[in-house]
C-alpha cells in the first residue's frame, strides 16, 4: 500500500519541487519524516526569512518554490514576506501543518482554527483538503494555480495525521493522475487585437515603450528588445519594479520613470502613444497629484495579469502572455526606414572612484561596488534610500540579473539573496542591503553560513532610516521618533552567525573586498561600508 506521504512526494518529484524551505514545528514532523535523500531541506531560523529565501529562489530559477511552515504561528510570522511574494508575482506553494483531525473540533493546542482565512489576501488560493486522500490532488492544484497568470503564492493546510493514511487503489490512481497533469499558460492575444495595436504603433508620431518586471519573469526580454529596435522606440523602465525588463546599456534605454503621478506624466510629455508591457499603470508613491498622462497622450497596457488591466486608471489594456504577443506584434509592425542613428551604448563598466570623505557618500560607495562585481552578477537590492545611486552605477544588461521587492515592506533582501544563490549557483549574487533593512531578516546570515552559500552581502550603513527622513521632509512631518539606528555593528552580527565580515575603509578597499568575495566559492561574506546620507529624488 502507498501512503499519502509517499504519494505527495512522488507528486513533488514530478513537479521538480524537491527543495523545501522551512522551519519545522511539531505539526510538520510527519511531513518531514524519513526525509528522502533526493530532496533538499533549507532551514531558516524564522518563517519570514524562510518565505523570503523561497521568493528569491523561485524568481532566480523560474520555478515554483515549496515552503513548509508551522501551523498558525508560523504562517503569522511569515505574513509580511507573503505580502511581498504576492506583490512580486512569485509562484510559491506554502504548506503548513495542522493539528490531527480528531482534535481540530475541540481546538486543541496548535489547531489553526481558520487555516484558509489566515493567509488571505496575500495568497491566490487557500485550502485544507477535506480528506487525507485528497492531499496529492490539492498539492497538484496548488502548483497549477501558483503558476497561472498572475503568478503568486498559494496556501495548503495539511493535518499532521494525514500522511500515514494508506491509499486504496482508487486513491492511488487519483494521486498518479494528479501528478501527471500539466496546465499550460502561454496564451497570446488573438491576431486582430495585436493587428490593431500594430496599426496604432505605426500611426503614432512619437510612441514610447515602458517595460516592467514581468517582461523578465515571463522570458520576454529579447522580444521587448526586438520590438523596440524594429520601431526605434525609446524605452523607459516602469517605476518600483522588482525586476529589469530591458538592457540598461542599450542605446534606446532612457532610465527609470519617477514613481509619482505628476512627475511621471511630465517625463512622458511629447509622446502621443505609451505602450506599457509587463507592469501596472503605475506604482505610485508618494502622492504628487497631477494629470495621469500628458494632454493628447494615449496608453495601451499589455499584461498577463487581469487585475492589473482592470485597475489601471487610464488607457486600454490587452490581457495575454507577454512573450508570444510581443513576438507577433514585432512581426506585424513595419520596420521604420527613417530611424535616426542611435546614440552609443551607455557605459557598462565603472571605474573605482576617488574617496570623497569619510565616511564615503553612498554614490561613491555604490560606484566602487559596481566596479568590483563581475559582469554576470545577480543583484539583489534592499537599500531604499540608495536605490537611485545604485541604478546610476549598476547597468543590468542581461535577463535574470536584478531582484527587488515591489511590496513596500522590508525583509526581502538578505533572505532573497540566499535563495537566489541557491537557485543560481553558477552566478555570483551581490545583495546591497541597508543596515536598517538587514535587521528584518538578519537570521538569513545563519542559513548562508550553514549551507556555505557564497552570497556577497554589501551593507551601505548610514545608521538611520534615511528613506523615512526623506519622506518626512517631503511630507512636512517633523519631529518623528524612531528614525535613528545608533549602535548597530553589522560585522559583529555577521560573525555571530558564522559569516566572515569586513568593514571597508575607502572606495578602493571596498572594490577589492567585493572582487575577492564574488570570486570565492567558500561561502558568504558581509562587507559593511559606512556611508553618508544622500538626498532621495523622485
Protein architecture, described:
This protein has 538 residues and is α/β, with parallel strands linked by helices. 37% of the residues lie in helices and 17% in strands. The strands form 4 sheets. Strands 15, 16, 17, 18, 19, 20 and 21 form a 7-stranded parallel β-sheet that branches. A 6-stranded parallel β-sheet has the order 3-2-4-5-7-6. Strands 11-10-9-12-13-14 form a 6-stranded parallel β-sheet. α15 links the parallel β16 and β17. The chain starts with a strand and ends in a 6-residue tail after the last strand.
Layout of secondary structure:
Elements: E1 2-3, H1 4-14, E2 19-22, H2 29-32, E3 40-43, H3 47-61, E4 65-69, H4 71-87, E5 92-98, H5 101-104, E6 126-127, H6 135-147, E7 153-159, E8 166-167, H7 169-180, H8 191-203, E9 207-211, H9 213-217, H10 221-231, E10 235-237, E11 253-256, H11 261-267, E12 273-277, E13 298-303, H12 306-311, E14 316-319, H13 322-332, E15 360-361, H14 362-372, E16 378-382, H15 387-393, E17 402-404, H16 413-423, E18 429-433, H17 435-438, H18 444-450, E19 456-461, H19 466-475, H20 490-496, E20 501-503, H21 507-518, E21 525-532
Parallel strand pairs: 2-3, 2-4, 4-5, 5-7, 6-7, 9-10, 9-12, 10-11, 12-13, 13-14, 15-21, 16-17, 16-18, 18-19, 19-21, 20-21
Antiparallel strand pairs: 1-8
